[in-house]
Write a structure and sequence with these properties.
Elements lengths: L2 H12 L9 H19 L19 E4 L6 E6 L8 E6 L4 E6 L4 E5 L6 E8 L5 E9 L2
Antiparallel strand pairs: 1-2, 2-5, 3-4, 3-6, 6-7
Amino acid sequence: MKTRNCIEFCIFAKKGYIVGGLSYPVTMRIFYLILILIFCSVTQVKSQNRIPGFPDPEPESVRFYPNPATSFITFDFLKNFGRNYSIQVFNFLGKKVYEFSASDQKTIVNLSDFFRGIYIFQLKDPNGKIIQSGKFQVNK
């Protein structure tokens, strides 16, 4: 169905004329049903697990909880990292407020010196490359 014919059909039906022996409400229902069918057939998108041209995302290296946190936050390292890996914590303005090395499988950070707000962490390897980053909220 061409766009022009579709528009003319719509205008003709809205004026209250009987189209093809059908009354206005039935005609409009058929018209909208046809539009929905055309739209659904045109907009079918195939989902893909990966986007061509982009590398596959790396699996999580560190898990942190609870989020939002009140008095402490726990960082669990899911891979065996050497002692040279570090985590830096920044406030929302970008100022580094805390840093520690990933020496244990689980590290608990005391938040008593942290203000209420959103903080960003970065897990870095010995060369300074960011392995993973994330954000957590402190509620007091």
